[in-house]
Amino acid sequence: MLKGSCACGQVRYEIRGQLIGPITYCHCWRCRKQSGSSFGTTAGLAPWALRFVAGEALLSSWQSSPGVRRFFASCCGSPIYKIDASDPSELGFRLGTLDDDPGMTAGMHFSAGSKAPWVEITDDLPQETGGASFEERD
C-alpha cells in the first residue's frame, strides 16, 4: 500500500494495488500549467485503488477539456488526479503527492514536442513527440 497527501496534509489517501505504468513525464501545456513546473509526473491508477482517509470533502475539480475533470486539494491547490469520461477505468494520478516510494521509475516523456523552451531532455527515455502549444489550446 502507498500513502500520499496534499501539500498542507489535510487531504490524505492510500493506494491499494499497483500503479499502471509507465510513470510518465508529461510536457503538455496543461500539465505544465497545473503543476507550475516543467512537466507533470503521472501514472495510471484504477479508480478502486484510491481511497481517501482524510479530507476527501476538500477535493475540488475543474474541466480541463471536454470530458476531462482534474481533481485537486482546495485547501492548498495540490493536484491529485484526473479522470477522462471516455475511459473512466483509469485515473491519471499525480505522483508528486505520494509520500511513499512507488517502486517504479519514469519510463517515458509524453508530449515532448510541446515541452517548455527552457527544458533540455538529456536522458535516454523514449519520447512521444506530439502535443499542442498553449496558443493552440481548445
Oligomer state equals: single chain
**Strand arrangement across the biggest beta sheet:** 6-7-8-9-4-3-10
Rg computed from alpha carbons, rounded to a whole number of angstroms: 15 Å
- Helix and strand content put the structural class at mainly beta
CATH architecture level-2 label: Beta Complex
Q: Would you identify the regions where 5 or more consecutive residues have pLDDT less than 50?
A: none
Structure description:
This protein is mainly β. It has one domain: Metal Binding Protein, Guanine Nucleotide Exchange Factor, Chain A (Beta Complex). The protein has one helix spanning 29-35; strands at 2-5, 12-15, 20-26, 40-45, 50-54, 59-65, 68-73, 79-84, 91-94, 106-110. The strands form two sheets. It has a seven-stranded mixed beta sheet. It has a three-stranded antiparallel beta sheet with strand order 1-2-5, with no helix packed on it.
Secondary structure topology:
Layout: E1 2-5, E2 12-15, E3 20-26, H1 29-35, E4 40-45, E5 50-54, E6 59-65, E7 68-73, E8 79-84, E9 91-94, E10 106-110
Parallel strand pairs: 3-10
Antiparallel strand pairs: 1-2, 2-5, 3-4, 4-9, 6-7, 7-8, 8-9
Which short descriptors sum up this protein?
138 residues, mainly beta, Metal Binding Protein, Guanine Nucleotide Exchange Factor, Chain A, 7-stranded mixed β-sheet, 3-stranded antiparallel β-sheet, 1 helix
Quick synopsis:
The protein has about 140 residues and is mainly beta.
